[in-house]
Amino acid sequence: MSDDPTIFEQIVAGDIPARIVYETDTVAAFLDANPLAPGHTLVVPKEPHERLEDIPDDEAAAVWAAVQELVPQIAAAVDADATTVGVNDGEAAGQEVPHAHVHIVPRFEGDGGGP
Ligand code: 5GP
Questions:
Q1: Which of 46, 84, 94, 97 shows a CA-CA span of 20 to 30 A to 8?
Q2: Whose CA is nearest to atom 8 of ligand 1?
Q3: Residues 74-93, buried b or exposed e (16+ Cβ, 10 A)?
């Protein structure tokens, strides 16, 4: 693993601008720069754990608590009909940023596909 800070660490540090929608001591969530749908949000542990299995239990619980809190809030904000929650865990699954993150993608009747 590289020692360079990940894009998401730089966002958490405030070095790269992003629209932060949720923040605690251990977790942050911000809008995806290339959204699959309005309101597409990424939830990350602030520590740069690369893979799901690397996240300590307490931080993983905090990430999931954020997801549970954010899903209905985001759906209401963009008037979504449903939500897809997903993780690309590993390069072959499409993980581009080596800092574990959960996608929250609002879904709309007839939108024809997910992440
Ligand atoms: P992955 O393919 O790793 O699961 O998803 C990475 C996500 O991060 C992509 O949806 C991409 O649009 C998003 N992303 C990449 N760089 C940035 C950035 O600098 N800012 C924000 N807000 N999102 C980013």
A1: 84
A2: 32
A3: bbeeeebeebbbebbeeeee
Q: Please compute Rg for the chain using Cα positions.
A: 14
101 annotated active-site: yes
Ligand 1: atom nearest CA of 40 is 10
Answer yes or no: is the C-beta of 18 below 6 A from any ligand 1 atom: yes
Residue nearest to atom 21 of ligand 1 (CA): 33
At 18 the pLDDT is 98
Q: What is the pTM of this model?
A: 0.96
Label residue 49 exposed, middle or buried (CB < 10 Å: 0-12, 13-18, 19+). buried
ipTM value, please give it.
0.99
Rounded distance from Cα 78 to ligand 1 centre (Å)? 20
Torsion-angle region of 70 (φ positive above 0: left; ψ -120 to 50: alpha; else: beta): alpha
